[in-house]
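At your convenience, could you comment on the folded chain following this short note?
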Amino acid sequence: MNRSMMMGLVTGGLLGATVGMYAVSNMSPKDRKKAMRRTRKMLSKAVMMNVL
């Protein structure tokens, strides 16, 4: 992986995290719980795919 691609991935990740934090801060507590549950499911699936 070259340097510019790596920088693009890091920048994209930071932008995504910032937008995600902004969205979560504007959610109601009920919606926030639902979103966290969905995120946890996706992360656990991703981890399982990487393990196998």
